[in-house]
Amino acid sequence: MSDQVIPTGIEVSNSDQVLEIEWSDGHHSEYPLFGLRKNCPCVTCRGGHGNMNSFDRSLFFVDPTQNFEVEDIKQIGNHAIKIFWNDGHNNGMYQWGTLRDMCPCKECYPEQA
């Protein structure tokens, strides 16, 4: 566990439509809420167990068709957070590794437009 990169701070701004994470290695991630909600890691949103741990990073760069708001965030053990969305959905458990892997910054995702 000591070698794992973990969040040292998580902030959400519904007005700016972004969730920000500071990581223990000094990296900073900003996730647009639309892309984060559309990449919910739960089995229902992923379309079955075969699609678990898959996500579409391009959803962080689309003009959102709707705004999502975070009503609450709960830490799950030492490995994840559960986000309670304003559309009533709260099944997704966003593991640290998944969040870091889907970071949409230019350093982590140089293919972005």
UniProtKB/TrEMBL annotation:
The keyword DNA-binding does not apply. GO terms for molecular function: metal ion binding. Residues 10-100 form the Gamma-butyrobetaine hydroxylase-like N-terminal domain. InterPro entries: GBBH-like_N, GBBH-like_N_sf. This is DUF971 family protein. It comes from Fodinibius salinus. The keyword Hydrolase does not apply. Keywords: Iron, Metal-binding.
